[in-house]
Write a structure and sequence with these properties.
Keywords: Calcium, Cell adhesion, Cell membrane, Cleavage on pair of basic residues, Glycoprotein, Membrane, Metal-binding, Repeat, Signal, Transmembrane, Transmembrane helix. The protein is mainly beta. A hairpin with a 7-residue loop joins strand 42 (about 545-555) and strand 43 (about 560-570). The chain starts with a strand and ends with a helix.
Length: about 775
Amino acid sequence: MNCYLLLRFMLGIPLLWPCLGATENSQTKKVKQPVRSHLRVKRGWVWNQFFVPEEMNTTSHHIGRLRSDLDNGNNSFQYKLLGAGAGSTFIIDERTGDIYAIQKLDREERSLYILRAQVIDITTGRAVEPESEFVIKVSDINDNEPKFLDEPYEAIVPEMSPEGTLVIQVTASDADDPSSGNNARLLYSLLQGQPYFSVEPTTGVIRISSKMDRELQDEYWVIIQAKDMIGQPGALSGTTSVLIKLSDVNDNKPIFKESLYRLTVSESAPTGTSIGTIMAYDNDIGENAEMDYSIEEDDSQTFDIITNHETQEGIVILKKKVDFEHQNHYGIRAKVKNHHVPEQLMKYHTEASTTFIKIQVEDVDEPPLFLLPYYVFEVFEETPQGSFVGVVSATDPDNRKSPIRYSITRSEVFNIDDNGTITTSNSLDREISAWYNLSITATEKYNIEQISSIPLYVQVLNINDHAPEFSQYYETYVCENAGSGQVIQTVSAVDRDESIEEHHFYFNLSVEDTNNSSFTIIDNQDNTAVILTNRTGFNLQEEPLFYISILIADNGIPSLTSTNTLTIHVCDCGDSGSTQTCQYQELVLSMGFKTEVIIAILICSMIIFGFIFLTLGLKQRRKQILFPEKSEDFRENIFQYDDEGGGEEDTEAFDIAELRSSTIMRERKTRKTTSAEIRSLYRQSLQVGPDSAIFRKFILEKLEEANTDPCAPPFDSLQTYAFEGTGSLAGSLSSLESAVSDQDESYDYLNELGPRFKRLACMFGSAVQSNN
C-alpha cells in the first residue's frame, strides 16, 4: 500500500509525492491543477499523511521524504521533525528530508502519529516555510491470535437433555483491525467433546448433540478453538476449555438390594418400639434420592414403617403389642418409592421396588395376667367380719404356668387369700366411706419379680341404720300474749342414710306431749313441720322454758324413728308482739360477753409488755453501773481560750512543758515565701506529739488498771490526746504587724490546705477580688 506526501506551494499548486519505498533518486512528478478561487495564496506547505506497514523489524526503516520546492540542492536547507514520537520513534535526515522509523511499530499499541515538519535556512537561521502538520498511520497486519477473555468457562445442563439444547456460548476477541481484511474475523471449532457436543462456527454457541446420563458420567471437558482470517491458511488460533457438568434428574427409582430381611422383637416390647431398619438404594442424588417406605402387605396390622429422611432408611416399628403364646412369627412386605417425581419422569417409576420382612417374636417371662382390667364389687354395710366380697383371678401367660399369690395394698378392711377370694376384715359403715379404691397385686411364686396390679373398687351398700334428726339447732321463742294456733317455728330433718327413693320424713309429738301440751305440730308432708301454740297466754315468770319431744320417722325399710327435743323460750314481746325483741336481747348479751373477754385480753397484754419494758430498763441501768469510769471527765488539763490572747508565747495560764521531755519535729527549711512557709508549718504541726517517760508511764498505768478491772470490756480502749505543739514558727497571724498589704499577698494556697481552711480561702479570696 502506497502513501503520498501532499505539498502546497506558495503559488497554491498542489504536488503529490510518493513516499513509501521512495529513494533519493526518485523523480518528482508535478501535477498541475488550476488554482481554485477559494484558496488564498500564502507562504506555506502542508503534509497530509503517511501509511506505514506494522511490524517493521529492521533497525532503521525508510518511510518517506520531505522536500521543499525551494530546495535547490545546495544543502543550504535543514529539515526538522517535531511532535510526539519525533526523535524516539521517527527521525529525519536534516539535509535530505528522508524520514526513518527507528523502533518497531505496533498498531494495537498506537495506530496514529501526528507530527510537524519545519525547513530552516542554514545561512540565515530562519524558517523557509511555515511549520506544517502531517499524520503517519500504521497499517494492520495479522499479528494477534484470538483470545477468550471470560475464562474459565463452566456450565451446568440437566442430564438426558434432548439434542440441540443450549449449553453455553463462548466468545473470543482479536486485537487486530476488524476493518482490515479478515484479520479479526473468527471461526469456532470443536477440538474435544464429540460426539456429545457441537459448536456453532460463527457464534461460539455450544449445544448438545447426544443424550447423556449423569449416573454414567457426570462432567465433561470440551475444548473450543477460535481461528482468525475465517480459518484461511496462515490464520492464528486460540483455544479454551469448558467444564460442562450434568445436573441430576429423577430418572432412577429406588431399589432394594436385599430381597429378604429377618428381624426379631421381644413380646414385652411396648408399642412404638423400633425393631429394625431396611435400606433401598437410588442412583440419583439430592432431592431426587429422597424415599418413602410403606407397608404393602400386613394382615395383622401389627407393624408399621417410617422413613428416616436424614439417612433414607426405613424404620420398622411395633404398632401393636405381640404375644409369643398367641403368635410367634410374622411376615410383611414393604415397598419404597421416591418422594418427588415430576410428571414427565413417571415413566421411570411405574413399578415400585418391594422386599419381604420376616419378624420372629421372642419369648420372655411375662407377669401374671388378670382376667379383667379392673374389678368392681358390692357389699352391704354392717356386714360381719369375714363376709364374702368377691373373687379375682390371674394366670401366668407363659408355658410353665406358675402359681399366683395375691395381695391387697393399702387396705385394713379387706383380706384376700391365695385363691383370689376377698373378704371383710372389719365392719363397714357407708356413712364413713361409701367407696374403697384398692389395688390387687398378683405375684408369680416361681419368679417374685414378675408382678402385675389392677384396680379394685368396692362399693359399700346402704342399710337403714341412721334415724332422721333435726337439720339444725333451733332457737324458738313464744310471746306471753300469744294466741292459740299461732305458728312459732318451722322444723326440717335430715338422714345420713342413702335412700333408693327420695327421703320422706314424718313428724309427730310424743305421747306425753300429745296428751298434755301447750303446743301442737302439723306435718307439711314436704319433710317440714310447723309448731303451733295450743293455748292462749304464757307466763314468763312461772314457766320461762318449755321442752317438747318431736318424733321423726323415715321411709326406710325397716323404718327408723328418732326423738328430738325442741326448746321454747317464753318472751316478753311488749306492745310489738314480735319475738325479734327477745332475739335481739340474746344477741346483746352474747356481744357483751365478747366485749368483756376482749377487754380482759387487752389488759393482760398491757401487763405483759410493761413487765418486758421494765426488765429491759433494769438491765440497761445495770450495764451503766458496771462501767462508771466511762462517765469521768479526762479534760482537767484542757483550757479553752475565747480571746486571741498574746499569741503562741503566752503560756502563763498553764505550762504544759512539764509533761514533755522532748518533741520530734522535722528539720525546718529556709523560708522562701509566706504561703509556702505556712503550708510547711501546717504539715510539721501534724507530726508533733508526746514522747516523754511521763506519758508512757501514764499509759501503762491505765493499761494495768484496765487489765485488773473485772468490769472492764473485753476489748482494747483507745484514748486519743491532742496537743497544740511546742510553738508556731509562722509567728502571729494578726494583720496588724504585717508589713505586706493584702493586695500584694496571694491566698490561693489556702484552697490546698483542706476543708478546714475553706472558710478562710473564701473570705480572703473574695476580699482580694473586691479590693482589686
